[in-house]
Amino acid sequence: MVTTHPGADAVAGLRAHARSARRLAVAVLVASIASLATAQMLAERAPTREGTRPFAWLALAVLTLAVPAMALTQAAWGARSRRVRVRERALYAKVSSGSRQAASRLGIAAGWAVTLLLGFTVPRLFRESALYGLATAMSQAIEVVALAGLAAAVFFAIWWMRDTLAHATASPGDPWDPGHRGPGQERRPAWAGAAAATCALVAARAHLWEPATWLLCALLALTLACLLAAWAGTRRQEGLVTHE
User: Fold this and answer.
1) d(Cα 65, Cα 57) in Å, to the nearest integer?
2) Distance separating alpha carbons of residues 86 and 185, to the nearest angstrom
3) Spatial separation of the C-alpha atoms in residues 179 and 16, rounded to whole Å
4) Residue 23 · residue 234 · CB < 8 Å
5) CB 85: neighbour CB atoms within 10 A?
6) Residue 223, exposed/middle/buried by CB under 10 A (0-12, 13-18, 19+)?
7) Residue 79 Rama label (left phi>0; alpha psi -120 to 50; beta)
8) Residue 182 above 70 pLDDT?
9) In angstroms, how far is CA 166 from the centroid of its own chain?
10) Phi/psi at 97 (nearest 5 deg)?
C-alpha cells in the first residue's frame, strides 16, 4: 500500500488543470501559426490584386484573433501553474518539473517570435493588393509592435535565465509526493502530427519548399484535425484524473 500526503489528491487535481491549460495554450499557438502562414501563402498565390484582397483580410483577421487568444490561454496556463507551485511549496517545500517548465517557456517564446514575424509581413499583402493607405498605416503600427516585442524579448530573456537558475538549485523530490501523471502515449502521434504539419507550413512560408496549393490546405486541415484529436483525448484523461 502506497502512503501519500493528505493533500496529494488536491495537488493532483491542480496539476491536471494546469496540464489542460498548457495543452490548450499550445494548441492555440500552433493553430495560429499554421492558419496565419496558410492565409499569407494563399494571398501571395492569388493571380490578381483583386484575388489577393480577400486572403489579405483573412490574414489580418487571423492575426487579430490569434494574438489575444494566445495571450488569454497562456495567462490562464500561468495562473494555474502558479496555483500548483504554491500548493507544492506548502506541502513538499519544493516545486516540480523545473527543467520542463523552463523548456516549455522557451518554446512558447519561440512561438510568439514566429507569430510576430509572420504578422510583420501582413502589410505587404495589402500593398500588393493596391490598398496603399491601409498598408502604410499598418506598417507604422507594426513598427511600434516590433519595438514593444523587442523590449519584451529582452525582459523575457532576463527573467527566464533567473528563473531557470532558481529551479536548478531546487530541493530534491519529496517521498510524500505521488508524482505527475504524464501525458498518455495515445496522444503523442496527434501532437507530433500537428507540429510536423505546422513546421512544413512555416518552411513553405519561408520559401524553403514550394508545395501545391491543395497541399497547403491539406497541411492546415491535418494540423487542425491533430490538435482537435489531441485536445479531445486530453479532456477525457483530465476528467478521469479530476474525478478519481
Assistant:
1) 12
2) 29
3) 12
4) yes
5) 18
6) buried
7) alpha
8) no
9) 24
10) 60, 45
Q: Determine the Cα–Cα distance for residues 98 and 84; give it in Å rounded to an integer.
A: 12
Quick one: how many helices (H) and strands (E) in the chain?
Answer: 7, 0
Q: What is the pLDDT of residue 76?
A: 92
How does pLDDT run across 37-70, given as a tens digit for each residue?
999 999 999 888 888 899 999 999 999 999 999 9
* Three-state secondary structure readout of 182-239: CCCHHHHHHHHHHHHHHHHHHHHHCCCCCCCHHHHHHHHHHHHHHHHHHHHHHHHHHH
Q: How far apart are CA 54 and CA 191, in angstroms?
A: 31
Distance CA 87, CA 101 (A): 16
pTM of structure: 0.85
The answer to whether residues 242 and 9 touch, using CB atoms and an 8 Å cutoff, is no
Indicate the Cα dihedral angle 124, 129, 130, 132, nearest 10°.
-30
**DSSP designation for 176:** T
pLDDT at 2 over 70: no
